[in-house]
């Protein structure tokens, strides 16, 4: 599967007292990009939520390499590494407008039944559209 990119601008609310992006906000940037990645394949998560199926982050690791600052224009990438029966593993990067990598995230999102919070197989319709993107 190829790389997906999503633009993000740093707002004042994203920064700490020093004017740099607060580390936890990189997780939000990555979450938005993964949501838009799925949307680009026609996967609207609210429809699956109505069926008690959702993706929850099971594991994440951040490698913070350089700071982003207020008003920076960033690009957040999503590169799926592995799609398993009940999870998706992705590598994500946050880059500044010069293409410098500011943060690298590795994320595993599990597909769960939201009523029981137990893992379930990723629905075939989702697997099918993601497979077409490879």
UniProtKB/TrEMBL annotation:
Has the keyword Hydrolase been applied to this entry? yes
Pfam families, alphabetized? 4HBT_2 (PF13279)
Q: Which UniProt keywords apply?
A: Hydrolase
The record's annotation in CDD domains points to: 4HBT (cd00586)
Superkingdom field: Bacteria
Query: InterPro entries from the xrefs?
Result: 4-hydroxybenzoyl-CoA_TE, HotDog_dom_sf, Tol-Pal_acyl-CoA_thioesterase, YbgC/YbaW
Look up keyword Acetylation and say if it applies: no
Q: Which GO terms describe its molecular function?
A: fatty acyl-CoA hydrolase activity
**Family listed:** Belongs to the 4-hydroxybenzoyl-CoA thioesterase family.
The protein in question is named Tol-pal system-associated acyl-CoA thioesterase
Q: Which organism is it from?
A: Aliidiomarina haloalkalitolerans
**Originating gene:** ybgC
């Amino acid at each position: 599967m190829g790389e997906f990119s999503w633009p993000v601008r740093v707002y004042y609310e994203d920064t700490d007292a020093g004017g740099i992006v607060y580390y936890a906000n990189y997780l939000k940037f990555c979450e938005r990009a993964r949501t838009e990645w799925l949307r680009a394949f026609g996967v609207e998560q609210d429809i699956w939520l109505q069926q008690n199926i959702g993706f929850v982050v099971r594991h994440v690791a951040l490698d913070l390499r350089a700071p982003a600052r207020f008003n920076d224009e960033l690009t957040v990438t999503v590169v799926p590494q592995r799609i398993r029966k009940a999870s998706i593993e992705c590598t994500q990067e946050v880059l500044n407008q010069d293409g410098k990598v500011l943060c690298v995230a590795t994320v595993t999102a599990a597909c769960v039944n939201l009523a029981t919070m137990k893992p379930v197989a990723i629905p075939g319709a989702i697997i099918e559209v993601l497979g077409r993107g490879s």
